[in-house]
Amino acid sequence: CQPGDTVFDRFAGSGTTLLAARLEGRRAAGCEVDADRLGLIRERLARHGIGADDDGVALLHGSCDALDGAAPQPFELCLTNVPYFGCRWPGAPAAGQLYGSRSYAQHLEGLRDVFHAVRTHLSEDGHCIAMVQNLRIGERMLPLAFDLARILGSLFTMEEERVLIYPHGEETGAADDADAARTDRRHEYALVFRKQRTRIDLQATAELLEALRAQGHAFTLVGSFARWLQAPEQSTQPADADIRVAADPQRLDALLRDLRDRGFALASWDEPVALPLHFESYRGRYYFRAERVDSSGAMVRLDICYEQ
Questions:
Q1: How far apart are CA 28 and CA 79, in angstroms?
Q2: Residue 83: enclosing H or E segment and its boundaries?
Q3: DSSP 52
Q4: Contact at 8 Å (CB) between 191 and 118?
Q5: DSSP letter string over 224-266?
Q6: pLDDT 10s digits, 30-86
Q7: Burial level of 305, CB count in 10 A (0-12/13-18/19+)?
Q8: SS3 for 106?
Q9: Are the beta carbons of 244 and 265 closer than 8 angstroms?
Q10: Are strands 75-81 and 6-9 parallel, antiparallel or unpaired?
Q11: How far is the C-alpha of 28 from the C-alpha of 25, rounded, in Å?
Q12: Surface-to-core class of residue 261, CB atoms within 10 Å of its CB (0-12 exposed, 13-18 middle, 19+ buried)
């Protein structure tokens, strides 16, 4: 981000990101659910002559996905280090504290909610960078970095990854609490994403629609791709093609099978769609998404709307 831009840390912790942002001429905003940590952040900023809650710093007590009217102002960069499932949090329990997740699935769902809220306030073309490691609990390895990358990939466009390598000494042996979460401090992932419209292969998308019609599939093309076909020079480039189909389980199953055979991944709300199609279990979800990336990196994305 540029000088004067706002850097937001969703998990402010001890305030490292906020302090670095102010020292580098950026505005800083952060959320933290632990009131004690907020006090430490204010003390740390004050030691560097920076007043918390002044014009350049905004501290929010709570979880940004549940703050409603107190949510942060738009920002150009979210840079944050995510909390780790299974850590023994020493502080007082707090609503929205992901350290207290009862299961790994619940922890991932909480992270999805958090970064969905981040996306709402992140400026167009802004970046979201998450620092994360995989972790081990007991004898089980949990791929937190890779699972988080999939969550972020459903909300943003991935630009790159960085792997930060840290110096290390001799192995210290087993942790005192063998069941507590442990991370390998030898390295850390910086997952770099951006909020921007997905770029699709327009010609390949148009050819797909013609091929599906020739195959006998009935649908109505709606939305941004339909407008782009009518007036390419006057329309924003679409990020997908929307088609409306009848809520007929047999016809939908045939269409999805055809797309699968053409190399498309099928999903409903980011979950894989299994065939044969059990249509009733998808009622109320409104659409299926079909997406294909070819060997040149070009993408075709089709949203199949079967309900209003």
A1: 11
A2: none
A3: T
A4: no
A5: HHHHHHH-GGGSPPPSSEEEE----HHHHHHHHHHHHHTT-EE
A6: 999 888 899 999 999 999 999 876 778 999 988 766 655 555 689 999 999 999 898
A7: middle
A8: helix
A9: no
A10: parallel
A11: 9
A12: exposed
Two tokens, residue 244? 């409306």
Instruction: Report the C-alpha gap between 226 and 239 in whole angstroms.
Output: 12
Buried b (16+ CB within 10 A) or exposed e, 268-302: eeeeebeeebeeeebeeeebbbbbbeeeeeebbbb
63 CB-contact burial (10 Å; exposed 0-12 / middle 13-18 / buried 19+): buried
CA distances to 200, 210, 211, 212, 306 from 207, in Å: 13, 5, 6, 9, 22
Cβ 290 vs Cβ 302: under 8 Å? yes
> Cα dist. 144→19, 82, 159, 248 in Å?
27, 10, 19, 39
pTM: 0.82
127: β partners:
77, 194
